[in-house]
User: Which sequence fits this backbone?
């Protein structure tokens, strides 16, 4: 889980970006409440999909605002000074609108905010919440007709800060990677003609959760393709396809712990792969190796894409590589930096990115491979450790 030291560090980095005139911040995106306070409503609970707000004050005080069942359903104890909780359900009375319960918690602290200026995360704060905020609240957003130097878009600042992962975030991501590695290993233990996509999903999910040693969310691509239909994706549809010789199965999935996630891929062949499939796989591996040579803080994301693309161009297979060369990963999927031809992103130390070369050729099949990397000043640390092979 995230640490108190890490959350405090991220709060300070946030305040360092906020104008001096702002006295308090109201954080509404559940990912950012987690990022700054280690508060994440357990998605595998009856409160899944609910949330709380986080109030940060310049003097250092922090407050979680929510209903009693959302707050009690947090995965971990949050790192805050107080919890202001509205009693939404007490096993005796009918329930009210649950969002209104959260607004009531906000109303309970509104007098504390009346003497200062506030900044809200406008993209995620419900309109109804603004009715209980004091009149001093304002939002510097890029849509205002003001001097650019005075603009302060809280949501965009937080998304930008998220790129530079701190040690507690990296450790949590490594836990996601280890769980993902376990699922990838299980694939090779069970893989054979006659197995269904749903069978693979069930087995991989079980192995990943065992690898995490705690409840986790699993999502991604658990689909087979073949020469006539080389590009498919998503979860199995009902039982899914029964794998047949000549199919290629792409396992591209994520393990989510406390909102953070891994994302890495393997493609395996049902039966002996054809010479054409082997050739495409070797080009994908060459693209990944070339991309690794380019991974370093300060490098343009578009240049990483160019490096990954080079082996395809040299082999005359440029058109078979039709998607990004990789992307950032963390509290969202994908997030900056995005490794595409016209990206304006620049790699930073602390970015966690994927390299994801793929190839799709009608009459042959489709494939992807993928690893995850922590960007450093002089290169990278690879975080995923699954074996990439066709059989």
Assistant:
């Amino acid at each position: 889980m995230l640490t108190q030291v890490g959350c405090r560090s991220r709060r300070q980095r946030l305040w360092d970006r906020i104008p001096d005139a702002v006295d308090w911040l109201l954080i509404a995106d559940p990912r950012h409440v987690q990022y700054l306070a280690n508060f994440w409503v357990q998605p595998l609970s009856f409160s899944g999909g609910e949330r709380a707000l986080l109030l940060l004050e310049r003097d250092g005080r922090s407050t979680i605002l929510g209903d009693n069942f959302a707050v009690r359903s947090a995965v971990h104890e949050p790192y805050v000074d107080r919890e202001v909780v509205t009693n939404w359900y007490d096993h005796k009375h009918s329930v009210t609108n649950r969002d209104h319960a959260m607004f009531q918690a906000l109303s309970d602290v509104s007098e504390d905010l009346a003497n200062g200026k506030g900044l809200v995360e406008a993209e995620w704060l419900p309109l109804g919440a603004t009715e209980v905020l004091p009149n001093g609240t304002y939002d510097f957003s890029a849509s205002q007709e003001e001097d650019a130097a005075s603009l302060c878009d809280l949501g965009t600042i937080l998304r930008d800060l998220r790129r530079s992962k701190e040690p507690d975030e990296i450790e949590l991501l490594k836990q996601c990677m280890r769980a993902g590695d376990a699922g990838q290993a299980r694939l090779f233990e069970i893989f054979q003609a006659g197995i269904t996509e749903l069978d693979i999903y069930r087995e991989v999910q079980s192995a990943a959760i065992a690898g995490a040693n705690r409840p986790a969310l699993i999502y991604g691509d658990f689909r087979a393709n073949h020469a006539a239909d080389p590009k498919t994706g998503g979860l199995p549809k009902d039982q899914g396809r029964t794998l047949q010789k000549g199919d290629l199965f792409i396992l591209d999935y994520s393990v989510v712990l406390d909102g953070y996630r891994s994302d890495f891929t393997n493609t395996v062949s049902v039966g002996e792969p054809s010479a054409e499939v082997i050739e495409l796989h070797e080009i994908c591996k060459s693209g990944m190796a070339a991309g690794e040579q380019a991974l370093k803080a300060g490098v343009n994301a578009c240049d990483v894409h160019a490096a990954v693309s080079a082996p395809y161009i040299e082999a005359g297979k440029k058109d078979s590589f039709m998607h990004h060369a990789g992307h950032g990963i963390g509290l969202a999927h994908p997030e900056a930096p995005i490794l595409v031809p016209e990206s304006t992103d620049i790699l930073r130390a602390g970015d966690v990115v994927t390299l994801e070369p793929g190839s799709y050729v009608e009459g042959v099949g489709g494939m992807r491979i993928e690893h995850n990397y922590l960007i450093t000043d002089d290169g990278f640390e690879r975080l995923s450790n699954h074996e990439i092979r066709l059989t």
